[in-house]
Amino acid sequence: MGDASMVWRTRNEGLFLRIGAFLTEHRLSPDPEHYRLAYAILHDLSGEPAREAVRLTKDGARLGREELEALVAKATTAADAAVPHWQDGQADAMPDQQVQDLVAATQAQVDGVADIVRTMRRDNNGFGRDLARSAAEIGSVPPSAFDRLSNITGGMIARVQEAERRLARATDETEELRLKLSEAHAIARRDPLTGLPNRLALSEALAARDDAVYCLALCDVDRFKRINDQHGHGVGDRVLSMIGHALADHCAGHLVTRYGGEEFAVLLKGLNVAEAARLLDRARAAIAARRLRNRETDEPIGAVTFSVGVTTIRPDETTDTATERADKLLYTAKAQGRDRVCAR
Predict the structure, then answer these.
(1) By three-state DSSP, how is residue 230 classified?
(2) Given the DSSP bridges, would you call strands 214-221 and 292-293 parallel, antiparallel or unpaired?
């Protein structure tokens, strides 16, 4: 386990323990609402809500419902002030890294809650069995001595059984949320138009590359605006999807991504720059040989070509430097007449 993972685990386990102790101290059941309430107070020990909670309970007092809700209101206000708000229509403008961090943080929190719920459910099961055994033993003693104690124990067993049922529901809901977050994580790395991995997926692959040889190619569809202007954006979208899938077929085994607009990026592993250029040139020639038609009007679209800039990612350079070089090579291919590959 890396240092960052150890720090994350230590910090969050401490928070989980504080929340559990808080719920026990104030006799709160482990409902999602109570967990949210405790988290709002305890997630920042240096914050005003946490300090206020310490002050109110310093003589061993338990917090009342009104006091708890007041503390949650303070915690919510402080959290709102610390988190950036997005105006209507700006959701798409959130940077990919922030989306990634948000999903990762939420996933970690859900995993933590699920672990707590499972632990509490296991402990409650054991407690329920012990109570049931005790009740059976009490039942063998003359009723006159233990009627009242038996009634109390029976009530406790009923409460434990109800808690177990509620914990089971909470576990199911948490697992469902975990699956939805996993799905959201995958969706965040997928281009909705072509179904290909997107720019975020490429960034992660670039960051995770090993000691193998890698090349990066940027591919841009030639005169794409003309297709949109003459045939409409629907046709343009289908052309982009066709090119993306054709690239993925010809570059099978390598990462083909929708980079943005009419641009695609390909991360090629294990090929030198000459081999990468030949592979992309074969894909370029195969796509250029197609003669497309507008399926709504049967009007010919003709040949669709693209230009490519491809370069080796050197071990001693950043991915930004390699990307800039590939981009310059792409513009060189455009300047030399389009429908070609420039490599270095």
Answers:
(1) helix
(2) unpaired
Residue 35 contacts residue 170 (beta carbons within 8 Å): no
pLDDT at 333: 97
Which pLDDT score, from 0 to 100, does residue 92 have?
A: 39
DSSP-derived 3-state class of residue 257: strand
Residues tagged active-site: 262
- Please name which of 86, 107, 116, 75 lies closest in space to residue 179, comparing C-alpha atoms: 107
- Distance (Å, rounded) from C-alpha 37 to C-alpha 14? 17
C-alpha span between 303 and 291 (Å, rounded):
5
DSSP, collapsed to helix, strand or coil, labels residue 292 as strand
Q: Which two tokens stand for residue 221?
A: 């569809």
Give the helix ranges, DSSP H, for 232-318: 233-250, 273-288
* Alpha-carbon torsion, ordered 269, 274, 279, 281, to 10 deg: 140
Q: How far apart are the first and last CA of the chain?
A: 39
**Does residue 280 contact residue 251 with C-beta atoms inside 8 Å?**
yes
Please say if the pLDDT value at position 27 is more than 80: no
Report yes or no on whether pTM surpasses 0.85: no
Cα(185)–Cα(64) distance, integer angstroms: 40
